[in-house]
Amino acid sequence: MDWNSTIKGFTSYLKLERSLSANSIEAYLRDVDKLKQYCETLGGKAPSEIETGDIETFLAWINELGMLPPSQARVLSGLKAFFKYMLLENLIENDPVSLIESPRLSRKLPDTLSIVDINNLIAAIDLSKPEGMRNKTMLEVLYSCGLRVSELVNLKISNLCLEVEFIKVTGKGDKERLVPIGSEAIKLLNIYLKEIRVHSDIKPGKEDFIFLNRRGAPLTRVMVFLIIKQLAESIGLNKSISPHTFRHSFATHLIEGGADLRAVQEMLGHESITTTEIYTHLDRDYLRQTIISHHPRG
User: Fold this and answer.
1) Mean pLDDT (10-residue bins), the chain, 298 residues
2) Tag placement on the chain: N or C end, fewer CB within 10 Å?
3) Is 101 a domain residue?
């Protein structure tokens, strides 16, 4: 089979058998497209003709182009899924990536905001502007629930269970989870929905989305990034922050406060607890106080 036919079949496999989200499928296809581009430089090798040596030279090629180890690992992960599909469909007899190890990665600790930083960012929002209450509510929900930015912009009114202080979130792979929501976020949601959003001219079919732009359409992920960046600049916060920084801060503050790691894993929607364990980095003063308080020789 040629590249186009194989990629078309792979897309159907990811969509129907793996039930992946559109964003995940797009990421896998980008990885495969990089290999396709490389094979074109080799005279147009078909997917079924690729050998382990080709994959090794491909990885060396993307390394020379300046691709960092985390990105290389991401590409290799996509290729493993691609050749696994080809094996399942009997398009190849041997998997050319099965013996290739992923690049060693250092676990980078995520940037976090202090509670003071978060309070200052939210306090900097100009509530006299039409979008002020929307932005304040949005950041409170982001921090209160530890959401991914994609989960935030896709949050719907029908996902709210405010009477029992939970919201239903659709995460990676379209997996749903229930996340507790704090009283301050609930209060602001009620104000925003009942007093601000009701006056919006909402686009047909978008009535259930909570956070809307001036045109009555759901906010984009890029817009949320820009709002947070502008707020950081307005208070002179010299940190590189994004919506994900609120998620990191949510997890870190919970663990610093004594929350159970598995509970945090559930709230974040992590498939593996090893992903959540990165949030167990705590500042030295906190660790020192914990040892003094709890160790028998403290």
Assistant:
1) 91 90 90 91 86 90 84 89 93 89 64 89 93 96 92 95 92 86 94 93 94 94 93 90 89 82 83 70 52 60
2) C
3) no
**One domain, residues 66 and 138:** no
Catalytic center residues: 148, 172, 244, 247, 270, 279
Q: Is 218 helix (H, G, I), strand (E, B) or coil?
A: strand
For 169-217, the DSSP string reads EE-GGG-EEEEE--HHHHHHHHHIIIIIGGGS-PPTT-TTBSSB-TTSS
Q: Cβ distance 83 to 126 under 8 Å?
A: no
The H or E element that residue 161 is part of is strand 160-161
Angstrom CA distances, 230 to 78, 125, 233, 237, stand at 35, 10, 5, 10
Q: Are residues 75 and 162 in the same domain?
A: no
CA distance 226 to 111: 18
